[in-house]
Task: structure prediction
Amino acid sequence: MAHRGGALVHPESSAEAFEAVGKTAYPIETDLRQLRDGTLVPLHDDAAERTMSGLSGPPAGISEEQWAAARIRHPLGGAEGTPTTWEAMLDLYGGRNILVPELKDPAIDPAAFAETILQRGIQDKVVVQTFSFPAAQALARSGLQVLYLLRDGEEPDPASISSSGIGHVGPHKSISPGYLGRLKDSGLTVWPYTVNDAATAARLREEGADGVFTDTPWELAKQLGL
Result:
């Protein structure tokens, strides 16, 4: 899964990153936050300055015009990237590529978000992620595919997860083999995050993981011979 569009290869969560991943079979992963007017945009941090030039502060204080005029720094010092929006991503990739958005901003209403996916009829191509179990339950009840994210060391009961209609789990890459096995035994699809080296990816694959979040999908696949 191309984490933030391949954040060690392209400007993080940029239009250029998503375009590159969109030409592959890798699921496109992104974080979502809200601008001042409620527009959903791909941004991991609760402030813009780490990844962007021409912007600073929380997205709730940024207008759509300011967002569009900014740029996203390249991780290797290359050409800067172009900010985009979730709506633009849906127009370009919805129903074609697998999209894996994370509702990073707690102000995003899960029910309203679900409706935008259901209205397009692309729920079979979207897996929504969240660290919030109540939000994950609500999204699952709405009819969306859900990936429940776990923090390092968390090991909630797998049966409680699967019985809530949640089909996917995203544990930290340090997940123990025993717990990974319990998740799989409960019928859950498991995608550990964020794996950028072949040794860890191979170990997790051997232990039963279905895939991994990675900042370097092209290089990691090459190293694994995929």
User: Anything to note?
Assistant: The longest helix spans residues 110-120. The domain at 3-42+83-224 is CATH 3.20.20.190 (TIM Barrel). The longest strand covers residues 28-34.
